[in-house]
Amino acid sequence: MKRFSCECGNVLFFENSQCLQCGSEMGFDPAMGTMVKLTPESGLKRCDNGPTHGVCNWLLAKDDTNILCTACRLNRTIPDLNLYGNLPLWGRMESAKRRLLATLLGLGIEVHCLNEDPVGGLAFDFIQTLSNPPVTTGYAVGVITVNLQEADDAVREQTRQQLGESSRTLLGHFRHETGHYFWERWFGTLALDHPLRVAFTGLFGDAGLDYATSLNRHYSQGPPLGWEQSYISAYATMHPWEDWAETWSHYLQILDGLETCEAFGLQLGAGSLEVTPFPKESATLPENLPQEPAEDQKFLTWLHRWVRRAPMFNEISASLGQPALYPFVLSLPAVRKLRFVHYVASEGRPKPQPAAVAANPVPVESTPPAPAPLATPEAKEQVAA
Ligand SMILES: [Zn+2]
Ligand SMILES: [Zn+2]
Ligand SMILES: [Zn+2]
């Protein structure tokens, strides 16, 4: 995240609606990608979810006929706010969602709501767990379903432990699920012999593998031994779609994290010297794509700037009695996959395909119902229903 400041000199944060030093009304303007002061001359107004529910600080043009900002318009279903406890849970969801969207805006990726773009848009359904049938977080044909209960720290931590995950965050969920959306839009209808699709298969495996079988295998047998040597997470081993979504999510995590470090002038610590740099070969694109040695080097330098800080992050959190901030080790195959994601996200983005007509639009889920039992294909079908 960038570092913002008020004209009075005070530091502003992405979530602020007001400058706490001079009292100016502030908000985030997604069109400008920055925090701006809200004045009668600014030509801007607040998203209605700010004054009405206190869950949004984004702005939109005053003459816009919409009352909600571009982030809130993505919501197709919001939780029942008459139910006690739902409002703060939803607020946390919205914060994480806006942070993801800000990272995408930084990449030049605009996401439109399904209402405005019925074939290529995206929608979010925030569903409380008590709904019947019970809901799991997942993605299907332009719609990301989010289990509201995931915003409850105790529930999310319990699920994290049950699944043996090193990290489980709301922001991670939003990044991961949009990974499925973008895969569908960018790769879903590409011919199997399209160079990007060939490159994808070489790195992540055959996306045509039966998802339900893969899911069953993952939850009955667990990840293969030694998965750390090739994957970014145990969950990534389940299916090439999940590997892509996990790698996409990790890429956005580094992008956002490093931007924040550098915006705040966080220097490399002494521990950074102990990190062995990744070899050049780990950052080359698959052979069937145009080779870009200069860009490979830029990518590696970028990645090193991040991983060299990782020991410092983890030591700081240990000093504060907190779990590791960055509990990941990047293997060389994982670095190659990140390089491919970087290529796709920055310059090699395929022309968007209409999500709704993408080949094999199969619902995917990233989380079994919390806390138990573990997911079954039947549960997955319920999500689709
Ligand atoms: Zn101020
Ligand atoms: Zn909003
Ligand atoms: Zn997933």
Automatic annotation (TrEMBL):
Residues 354-364 have a biased composition (Low complexity). Residues 4-82 form the Zinc-ribbon domain. Residues 348-385 are annotated as: Disordered. Pfam families: Peptidase_Mx, Zn_ribbon_DZR_6. It comes from the Bacteria. This is Zinc-ribbon domain-containing protein.
